[in-house]
Amino acid sequence: MRIGVPAERKAGERRVALLPDAVARLVGEGHHVVVEAGAGEGAGVGDEDYRAAGASVGGRDEAFGAVDLVCKVKEPLPDERRLLGPDQVLFSYLHLAADPDLTRDLLAAGTTAIAFETVRGPGGSLPLLHPMSEIAGRLAVLMGAEDLMRRTGRLLGGVIGVPPAKVVVVGAGVVGVAAAEWAAAMGARVVLVDVARSQLSSARCVLGPGVETVLSTPPLVEDALRGASLVIGAALVPGEQAPKVIRRDHLGLMAPGGVVVDVAIDQGGCVETARPTTHLEPTYEVDGILHRCVTNLPGAAPGTASIALSAAVLPYVSAIARWGVPQALVEDPGLAAGVNVWGGRLVERAVGRAHGIPTEDLMKLLQAQETGARTGG
Q1: Candidate list 95, 99, 250, 332, residue with the active-site label
Q2: Helix pair angle (130-152, 302-323), 10° resolution
Q3: Contact between residue 35 and residue 56 where contact means Cβ atoms under 8 Å apart
Q4: Is it the case that residue 375 has pLDDT exceeding 80?
Q5: How far apart are CA 173 and CA 291, in angstroms?
Q6: Is 147 a catalytic residue?
Q7: DSSP 335
Q8: CA angle (243, 270, 361) in 5-degree steps
Q9: CA atoms of 373 and 342, how far apart (whole Å)
Q10: Confidence (pTM)
Q11: Strand positions, DSSP E, 197-238
């Protein structure tokens, strides 16, 4: 199989989907890998490293147009979507429920699109989202703490004789637990909010009793937000638009000069006043509260993020290249759960609900394709 690894063009994005060690394995398995020139620079990897691993290094058109499988980090930008065709597979983070234009462009292109964020692992885990979520949770605290200190002069963890700042984390998934852990390690007073008691119980086992846990009901959320200096939005329903947990009127409950970091912005954000920003222009202010809503937060740590992502993605790319997409999906239902668009047809129900687009059943489409291949139809 021919596999393309384009350079990322989203503002401030410096990650790369596959590192040279992953490329070397794919080449060793008999596949041809084309890496766009400069794709690894942000992660500290040069073109010569890819050539040494057996890849071809070429231009953008080669990394997109001359391959069967396009493996990239973030969703393709409008000018990149025009390079995708009906005989190709796109494998990347997509977050289609929050992006109707991207959804319709992929449908029009006839491309098969597999989203990293909806691939399922054992027990319903999200193996390709997990490493980036952990990084994002930690970065949210680091960046939020710096924003807070710059705005108010207040140190997140305080010192002896000076109380710490209050941090509220909304969502007790991977992002939320990572954020709560780092905020607590910095000495902050941390409140973790989630709609599910089971999630809070699991988080307590990891975080210990020093982190307060609160069920997400309107009165309890309001009480948690009173006096908060830093709020981190981490509420996620896989594949769906993020639920709006924090309303605009909630901002008035926060401490003056407070900061909101909405990590759920990829899926539309869980804060009503959140709108997407970039690493180049990361913040804006609403009602005296600074908002940081960068849609590719882990891109700020491209070295660590690329190592983690490449290792997580490689087994799936290897399986697709070895078996072909239809057989790989049959062999691994968790990979099949990642398919959002199949040959120009929408198969992810959550995306269909978000945009009012009819969906089809992936397994039926696969069966029809197999039947057609056997009969020559």
Answers
A1: 95
A2: 160
A3: yes
A4: no
A5: 21
A6: no
A7: H
A8: 45
A9: 16
A10: 0.92
A11: 212-215, 230-233
